[in-house]
Amino acid sequence: MPSHPDCPEFYTGAPVDSADLRFRDAFLAELWETLRTRHVLLTAPRRTGKTSVMDHLRDFPKHGFTVIYQNVQDLTHPADFFQAILDTLHDQHPEIVKRLAQGWKLLTDTLNKVTEFGIAGFKIRLRDTDPDWKDHWRQHGDRFLDQVRKQESSILLIVDELPDMLFNLKREHPAVLREFLAWFRVQRQDPHPSKDRARWLIGGSVNLSGTLDGLGLVDLINDLDDVPLPVLADAHVIEFVQSMLARRGVDFEETVPEQLRAHLGRPIPLFMQMATQELYRSWKKAPRKLVSADVDRIFAQLVVSMAAQDKLQHYYSRIAKYYEEPRLSAAHALLGQISLSSAGLSRAKLMQEFEHHLAGAGQTIPAHERKQHFNQLLRDLENDFYVSEIAENQYDFASGLLKAWWKKYYA
Ligand SMILES: Nc1ncnc2c1ncn2[C@@H]1O[C@H](COP(=O)(O)OP(=O)(O)OP(=O)(O)O)[C@@H](O)[C@H]1O
Ligand SMILES: [Mg+2]
């Protein structure tokens, strides 16, 4: 526990509490401005702070919005989607649900039953009120938005991890996927967002455009305003390390924050927190003036630690989940090769490795298609922040920690 009363905790996985959120003021102000008139798609890779930003929107609403946050990662059908949204709305703003129920039989009946059976059963009652919810999702969705549009103030509906729900939908109800996306798009365009009482902020860690592009469905989301969550600046990383250590009374050489920043590479905020916390723990065990060599040691330890294993494994597994062959196994092979390099590999060398991999796997694909697959793979790896182009046509891991870990376990 921090000794200082106003010293923020280390966050190593859970979203940052809205009151502790740093480095996002300018972005939040800009995002609120966009949300006045537009629906937004908030994109960023894993563990970079999307949910923390969404929580902040919810906890400190602006422009008169009522805000609800809904994670839809495990949902498999649009019916679940509306039930979850109504349930959360009922939990957090029961007065709004009462107003929405006016003239809407489904919701009035549900609320009547809830009075009888207690508040905790809202979702069950909502489901029971229409045994054919799955067939009627569109009608209930339409009605929900109609009711929202009759209200005096606006509701911001934050939907986190929508790409995951779309993947579930594709797997379990493939025919409904396009229907849902098409319905959703129409709803976002009419009325015009600036005149709509319902505002959507959609987010997720999977590259939604890339995913839907692969399914030939990208035209169904291209109306959304694509807002990428900015990468933390080098100066933020330095400030973070300095303040987190200084506020805990840790003595360190001036070079320490910069050394940590250099190891981190592209700063994934979670890794920044984990490394700084490790540094603090090491000092706590043996109080002394921390030096650059301590940072080197911390990173070497972090790579083999259970905590990191848990967080990093995701980067390996997500390729199997979202990439398709022949790019899937080629991605693992190329990343293995890059992890062994000291300063990345050239595009030509990577293409060579790619060809070599395909031949080894017995893939017989015409040359022009191989080239296409390769280009797309490199683009995906860049978009998903595995690699970045560090110099012209030279690619290296974006995250220093991920590179060291990959080399240890998968090269
Ligand atoms: N502004 C910030 N300053 C410092 N650390 C941050 C910040 N935002 C996020 N983090 C770090 O990132 C971690 C993950 O944050 P959050 O859950 O908001 O990210 P996410 O992008 O939603 O992650 P996921 O992809 O798992 O859904 C936090 O536990 C914390 O370590
Ligand atoms: Mg999240």
What does this structure look like?
This protein has a 5-stranded parallel sheet with strand order 2-3-4-1-5, with helices on both faces. The protein has a 3-stranded antiparallel sheet with strand order 6-8-7. 59% of the residues lie in helices and 9% in strands. The protein folds into 3 domains: 24-228, Rossmann fold; 234-304, Helicase, Ruva Protein, domain 3 (Orthogonal Bundle), CATH 1.10.8; 311-410, Arc Repressor Mutant, subunit A, CATH 1.10.10. The protein is an alpha/beta fold. A hairpin with a 2-residue loop joins strand 7 (387-391) and strand 8 (394-397). The chain contains 19 helices and 8 strands. The structure holds adenosine-5'-triphosphate and magnesium ion. Adenosine-5'-triphosphate binds at residues 11-16, 21-24, 44, 46-52, 205, 269-270, 273.
Helix content: 55-70%
Question: What is the N-to-C succession of helices and strands?
Answer: HEHEHHHHHEHHEHEHHHHHHEHHEEH
Under CATH, the topology of the largest domain can be stated as: Rossmann fold
User: What's the level 1 CATH class of the largest domain?
Assistant: Alpha Beta
CATH superfamily of the largest domain: P-loop containing nucleotide triphosphate hydrolases
> Compounds present?
adenosine-5'-triphosphate, magnesium ion
Q: For the report, how would you describe the main beta sheet?
A: 5 strands, parallel
End-to-end C-alpha gap: 38 Å
pLDDT below 50 for ≥5 consecutive residues: which ranges?
A: none
Structural class by sheet pairing and helices: alpha/beta
Q: What is the number of helical segments per DSSP (H or I, 4+ residues)?
A: 19
In total, how many beta strands?
Answer: 8
